[in-house]
Amino acid sequence: MSNAVLPVYGPSPVVFARGEGVRMYDDKGKAYLDFIAGIAVTSLGHCNPVLVKALTDQANTLWHTSNMFRVPGQERLAQRYVDLTFADYAFFTNSGAESIEGCIKIARRYHWSKGAPERIGILSFEGSFHGRTLGGINAGAQEKYREGFGPRLPGFRSIPFGDHEALKEAIKAPDLAAVLIEPVQGEGGVRAVPDQCLKGLRDLCTEHGVLLIYDEIQCGGGRTGKLFHHQWVAGAEPDLLAAAKGIGGGFPMGMILATAEAASGMAKGVHGTTFGGGPLAMAVGNAVLDVMTGEGFFEQVRRVAGTMQQGMESLKGRYPELVLDVTGAGLLRGLRMKDDPIPLRGKLSDRGLLVGTAGNNTLRLAPPLVVTEDDVREAIDIIDQQFASMMTAAGS
Ligand SMILES: Cc1ncc(COP(=O)(O)O)c(C=O)c1O
User: Between the N and C ends of the chain, which has fewer C-beta atoms within 10 Å?
Assistant: First the structure.
């Protein structure tokens, strides 16, 4: 079959026909347990009836008006996120990369408006991933994503993950505008930043007048058992936050959260988007938040996350020849493997379990947040069977 899609992906040959809850079904009717959720996106499962209703009701009413006009759903969702977080303002985008771009612009504009236009520096950490736009690949610390796309743009720089001395030096740079960090690094290997380091980073940024930007595109949206991961750490609130993925439950939407101070350089005409904050996305975004703020939602996420962690730890204990570590937080977890996990991902898919991979030889698990403890046990069982057969093959 000819394929006219630009060949930048290498998709698996399985073709999915439909999804329901935590399961997807291929075009031959085979069921799969979905423990990757479109890479931490379908946070409330496939075709969640609450979201389907919100979307179809809105689709039958009004699709798009642009930001030339007020969008009531946008104003409501902005206020709700402001009420639930550190932020004074929300700005809606269409993707994670667009949220990152906006955060970088707001940070630079902040310093410009304070009479320090030379402060354009954006500091990130080794292994970080901030999207595929030019701003995103320049902000991100992975050289492979910049290859062939010109020299690194002025101001962008990175230091090793967890190197406190390098951070203390880099934060002093007089041109530094902001530090950009994923509180739980996703693509780089599902690595959680220790709580005390997030707090320390917050204090350092405050001390040096540098803005702190959290990329919670993957670890936010309820994934670690709070609306945003940094909310686990008292006193570690950022100045700006980029979100996307899970906050739309599968409908493309992103969001920037900002304090009034960080956003003080922004004014009419300074930034914009045609589609961001449109009625369809806002209807779904409000419905996602309705579900997540419902009674007991996060308690259940934390409970299931505990079961998943235990299951993964027990796999590590039983297969030390294969598994090096269990990483991540909440329902964003990694099994750091001795060997490249990509072939393993294929084998698990053959067994009916969909997982992802990440850097540092990591098998990535990010199921929908509505996953049950039985689903988790089933998934761990499938991995167990696969590991057992790998051990048998290795011994024979
Ligand atoms: C932490 C992080 N930042 C940014 C992005 C980019 O988001 P998008 O693909 O929606 O542009 C991703 C996507 O994987 C991500 O995980």
Answer: N
Mean pLDDT by 10 residues, the chain (396 residues): 88 96 98 98 98 98 98 98 98 98 98 98 97 98 95 97 95 98 96 97 98 98 98 98 98 98 98 98 98 98 98 98 98 98 98 97 98 98 98 87
In a domain, 346, yes or no: yes
200/250 same-domain check: yes
Does residue 6 form part of some domain? Answer: no
Q: Do 221 and 325 fall within a single domain? A: no
92 as an active site residue: the answer is no
95, 101, 245, best to mutate for ligand 1 pocket (most atoms within 8 Å of CB): 245
Nearest CA to 238 out of 201, 207, 208 is that of: 201
Is 105 a catalytic site residue? Answer: no
Q: Give the range of the structural domain holding residue 320, as residue numbers without chain letter.
A: 16-48+297-395
User: CA dist 43 to 21, 28, 362, Å?
Assistant: 10, 25, 21
141: number of CA atoms within 13 Å, CB side? 21
Counting from 1 in the atom list of ligand 1, the atom nearest the Cα of 39 is 14
Question: What letter represents residue 387's amino acid?
Answer: F
Is the distance from the beta carbon of residue 216 to the nearest atom of ligand 1 less than 6 Å? no
Q: Is 353 in the pocket of ligand 1 (CB under 6 A)?
A: no
Specify whether 129 is catalytic. Answer: yes
Question: Is the residue at 5 inside a domain?
Answer: no
* Global confidence as pTM: 0.98
User: In the chain, where do the E strands start and end?
Assistant: 16-20, 23-26, 31-34, 89-93, 121-125, 156-159, 176-181, 184-185, 191-192, 211-215, 240-243, 254-258, 323-329, 332-337, 353-354, 356-358, 362-365
